[in-house]
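I'm curious: can you give me some protein's one-letter sequence along with its backbone structure tokens because I've never seen that pairing?
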Amino acid sequence: MEGPLQTSIHVCRENDQWMSRLPEKLWDIPLYNLALPGSHDTMTYCLDETSAVSGNESKLVKFLNKCIPCIVHPIIMKWSTTQELTVTEQLEAGVRYLDFRIAHKANDPSMNLYFVHMVYTTVTVQDILWEVLRWLETHPQEVVILACRNFDGLTRKLHCHLIAYIKEIFQCKLCPRNVVPTLRTMWQHGHQVIVSYEEDVEVEEHCELWPAIPYWWGNKTATRALIQYLERMKRMGRPEKFFVAGINLTENLRYILVHPFGSLKKMTLQSLPCLKIWIKQQYPGPKKECINIIAGDFIGSDDFVNDVIELNTKINSPLHCQSKGAGTKSI
């Protein structure tokens, strides 16, 4: 069964500066009205195989992992890993929305912060922020959205510590939230980073932080059900500013038991042909049923990033945002 599911992992070098190559007619359009590729659970390519289960997982998962780790831990790793490319490789591939799930390890006396998806990563948040900065310095016209979320185990002191690091590392590259984030404006001011922060109290105190970006999470195991969910959300109307349409499928206990030799990667690769059709039917823009950020798993598979970037060619076209009702029917 393995053969048909194998999809090459590739990085399209032509996408590393795709924003700087957009036509001038798009330079004055806010980024929340463009189509931007994103990665869901960006940092899971470096989950720590020796890590304890994170603090916010269920007591049952923690108990089973403690009693039979040789069985449970490999299962956790198979279903927690959503990306294979490093953060630099994702940026090189054209991803411009990074989904950072940040956590502090329980009983860790240090101030070190990690990324988390059931288990913790091997790298710290600080190291990855520096890595993003190094990439931005060699790509001065590219803009990246960092969505800081979850904050498992973070105290107020740790929030202050994280925000101080964000400011120290990115400095004037941070775009304040009172700026309308068009490419032309951001280039003129040297802004390259938009940080959304899922903690309202901190956002109110720091003008460099943007409010949490809504994420349309279907929580579906079937591709058709996920597409139906996304179409239903579109009919309800897009948010005014940034938002994410997540094309990531989500396993549950029943699905894992029915697919004992499965993995999130296999689940994802099977869904790509239908999701590719759905993506190509979308339109970016401010209208009710338009999209903005589309985030997926294993972004190096298939042509996901290219397909999202190419949606920007539809802006200002005669059929702009006329995809009503097309999503589920043709698929």
Notes: Confidence is low (pLDDT under 50) at residues 1-9. The radius of gyration is 20 Å.
